[in-house]
Write a structure and sequence with these properties.
By secondary structure, the chain is mainly α. It folds into 2 domains: 143 residues, Arc Repressor Mutant, subunit A, CATH 1.10.10; 60 residues. Helix content is 67%, strand content 7%. It has a two-stranded antiparallel ribbon. Helix 2 crosses helix 4 and helix 9 runs antiparallel to helix 10. The two termini are 18 Å apart.
Length: 243
């Protein structure tokens, strides 16, 4: 599971837990002050269902061999009723499929993502990435997201380490964690590049506005559009360089 997937999954599970306890909808969350704009995060019933779909699909995407409903409920502390309801909904819409697996003579029902489900997951990520991004302003990862030190990660270690059966299991686990941190480093480097590009574009816009003899909204709009196109171009180049 990528760093962003982990972040989204943990965030959504926390939000879902809070919402299930309070059963409130349509209440916009607080947002940070300017320059971060108010996020479009009013949670109506449809949005809340999408978040629950996002939780389950992200988890299943990390388990290509499938996962039982009981495992989802137990490992991720989700309510049984909610898990079964969402899995049924996802299966009816063609995003999830089931297969029967025999373990020690007992059959169990495994849920896996379909190709349609993978596409739906990407759509949800794109839709919710902007809505959830503002939370990094409220709780900056560099301040609250110390790898190996967070309470959530320590709990995960305590839960998963007892499953190690050999030295190879332990090595695979911690090598996977190291690979995850390398991915985080790459993303942070990309963010640094993007922020520098945005700052350069804003410096240019400010400079050109200062030179205007007459205030002209149309000219400012064109400056902003040109800056947007240039930033997108530089972003694509940064992606290629990082790869």
């Amino acid at each position: 599971m990528s760093g962003m997937d982990t972040f989204i999954c943990c965030l959504c599970i926390s939000m879902a837990s809070i919402m299930e306890k309070k059963q409130t909808y349509g209440q916009p969350l607080r947002y940070p002050p300017f320059p971060m704009p108010p996020p479009p995060l009013a949670l109506d019933r449809e949005s809340f269902n999408e978040l629950k779909h996002l939780i389950i699909l992200v988890i299943l995407s990390d388990k290509p061999d499938g996962l039982t409903g009981y495992s989802l409920q137990k490992k991720y502390k989700l309510s049984r009723t909610s898990v079964l309801r969402q899995l049924k909904s996802l299966e009816e819409q063609g995003y999830v499929e089931t297969k029967v697996d025999l373990v020690s003579g007992r059959s169990r029902k495994l849920f896996t993502l379909t190709e349609m489900g993978k596409k739906y997951l990407e759509e949800l990520k794109k839709k919710w990435a902007h809505r959830l991004a503002f939370l990094s302003e409220i709780a900056p990862p560099e301040e609250y997201g110390y790898p190996l030190l967070s309470i959530g990660l320590r709990r995960r270690f305590l839960f998963e380490i007892p499953d190690f059966e050999s030295k190879d299991d332990a090595l695979d686990y911690f090598r996977g964690l190291r690979s995850h941190l390398k991915q985080l480093q790459m993303r942070f480097e990309k963010r640094r590049i993007i922020l520098n590009n945005v700052k350069t574009a804003l410096d240019k816009i400010i400079s050109q506005i200062e030179k205007m003899e007459d205030f002209n909204l149309e000219s400012i709009s064109k400056l902003l559009e040109n800056a947007r196109k240039n930033i997108m171009k530089l972003d694509r180049e940064a992606n290629e360089d990082i790869k």
